[in-house]
Amino acid sequence: MSAAAVEPPCDGASDLLREAERLTAKLPGYRVEIIGGELTVTPPPDGPHGEVLTDLLLAFAPVHRGPTRVIQGIGLWLPDGPDDYAVPDLSVVDADYRDHLTEANCYDPAVFHLVLEVTSANYGNDLRKKVAAYAIAKVPVYVIVDRIHDRLHLLRNPVANEYDEHRVLAPGQHATLPVPAGAEIVLDVAAVLGAARP
After folding, report:
1. Complete domains list, the chain, with CATH
2. pTM of structure
3. Deepest in the core among 3, 91, 125, 128, taking most CB within 10 A?
4. pLDDT in tens for each of the 198 residues of the chain?
């Protein structure tokens, strides 16, 4: 089910990757990522961020069996830079993801079927940088719970550094998310955004 592996650096960790590892150890609860060659540190999530992730984890429970798993905060190795990686809030991955560990506690993007981010203080990363990064990594579906603009973004069909399909959903609409094995998850956008609202 998984595609070919991404080639991680073979000459040891770079200064940037070592700094990311140092910050991860020094700042528990913070999310450290390298996207587009830039180190990003995000403070711990607030209560509504955690609440909506719990609601979404429960909504995704039906696909946490058989060929896939639903995991919070799993590292995704990004192919667009020698040290790049992201840590999506929620991911649907192949059940054999453990066999695809690459570098810096991250996994090959080929095992990722869907990634989901809930925006926080650095929402520009979720709305711009990560769109390109996840598309380049060929993650089939990217969902953004946009707490700043009170919208849910559903991006599908990665092409180069963007997604071919981008739907913006508002309260009152429903989002149907395709997941492996023909399953679908339907989200009430108003309920998701209501739980996420600070």
Report:
1. 44-196 (3.90.1570.10)
2. 0.91
3. 91
4. 444 444 444 446 689 999 999 999 999 999 999 999 999 999 999 999 999 999 999 999 999 988 999 999 999 999 988 999 999 999 999 999 999 999 888 999 999 999 999 998 888 889 999 999 999 999 999 999 999 999 999 999 999 999 999 999 999 999 999 887 667 899 999 999 999 998
